[in-house]
Design a protein that fits this description.
- The chain contains 7 helices and 4 strands.
- With 198 residues, it is mostly helical.
- The protein folds into 2 domains: 74 residues, no CATH class; 69 residues, no CATH class.
- Strand 2 and strand 3 form a beta hairpin.
- Helix 2 packs across helix 3.
- The two termini are 42 Å apart.
Length: 198
Amino acid sequence: MSTNIESHLTENRSFEPAKSFSRTAHIQRLEEYQELYRKSIEKPEEFWAEQAAELLVWQKNWKTVLEWKKPFVRWFVGGKLNVSENCLDRHLKGATKDKVALIWEGEPGENPSPELREKLRRHVGMVIGPIAKPDDVRFAEALPKTRSGKIMRRLLKEIASGGHVTGDTTTVEDLNVLVNLCEPPPGSAGVKQAQRSI
């Protein structure tokens, strides 16, 4: 029996993004990415200092970018920033100040208004493109933001579309989410009942 492990998961193909996507992307060309990557490897302190200065608002500048005393590592030593300011406040200045950051409505279990559903549907169509514009918008609370959450969201999408689901949905925090997704959305002609394993 061989002790070597052979991997067949190597992917060498390259897929170009749509030109319309590239025009508005932070990094617009593969060469730009490769240059940033090269600098991050060859001059990591200089690279991360530039990134931190460009992308974050600092209340107090750092004295040292990297302090590495094995096994301890400290970044931006002496610097001070406010996470809330960097996540929210800084976006209130400049070109993105009128962009929607969060849509919130009501309490858990309440049905979103038809106006909100339509607004989200139009927004997704504008951001992703008319081909991806959803026919319906469904809501499910408290989904984890992990790999298992990604799988769960896929299963819930299948349930909402009336498909046959054989995956495990028992880890969803509130099982009423499954029932609500099987019901037709307000104002629709109806969605076929999903067959599911709960």
